Amino acid sequence: MVDSVRPLGYAEGTTRHAWHLFIVTVETDRLNCNRDRFMGLLAERGIGTGLHFTAVHLHSYYRERYGYRPGDLPKTEWASERVVSLPLFPGMKDSDVMRVCEAISALAQEVRR
């Protein structure tokens, strides 16, 4: 387990997971890089990542229509700056999972504060 990259927990009362995305939080306070750099360094190792959840209130529509600004929803922004979608697909083999895990573990050691 890598203490600076943590899977999201289940919501209370959840009994099943769809497993259509595998989201982790990059604990940037423990690392010497932000989420975007972390994603870039994984890409250099051949590990694709994605961003599926960004702070909606900071999208141009909501900023322009409702006047939202950075700082209005600090917890949402905190999460938005740290979540990453890791590879997850039906044909993923155990060796693929190990490759992703090993890359994350090595990278976390390299960029540890």
H-E string: EEHHHEH
Outline the biggest β-sheet.
Answer: 3 strands, antiparallel
How would you describe the shape? globular
User: What's the arrangement of strands in the largest beta sheet?
Assistant: 1-2-3
Tally of discrete structural domains = 1
Quick recap:
With 113 residues, this protein is of the alpha+beta class. It is built from 4 helices and 3 strands; from the N terminus they run E-E-H-H-H-E-H. 36% of the residues lie in helices and 11% in strands.
Walk me through the structure.
The structure is a single chain. With 113 residues, the chain is an alpha+beta fold. The chain has a single domain (21-110), classed as Aspartate Aminotransferase, domain 1, CATH 3.90.1150.10. It has 4 helices and 3 strands; from the N terminus they run ββαααβα. The protein has helices at residues 35-44, 60-66, 74-80, 94-110, and strands spanning 5-7, 22-26, 83-86. The protein has a 3-stranded antiparallel beta sheet with strand order 1-2-3. The longest helix has 17 residues, at 94-110. The two termini are 17 Å apart. 11% of the residues are buried.
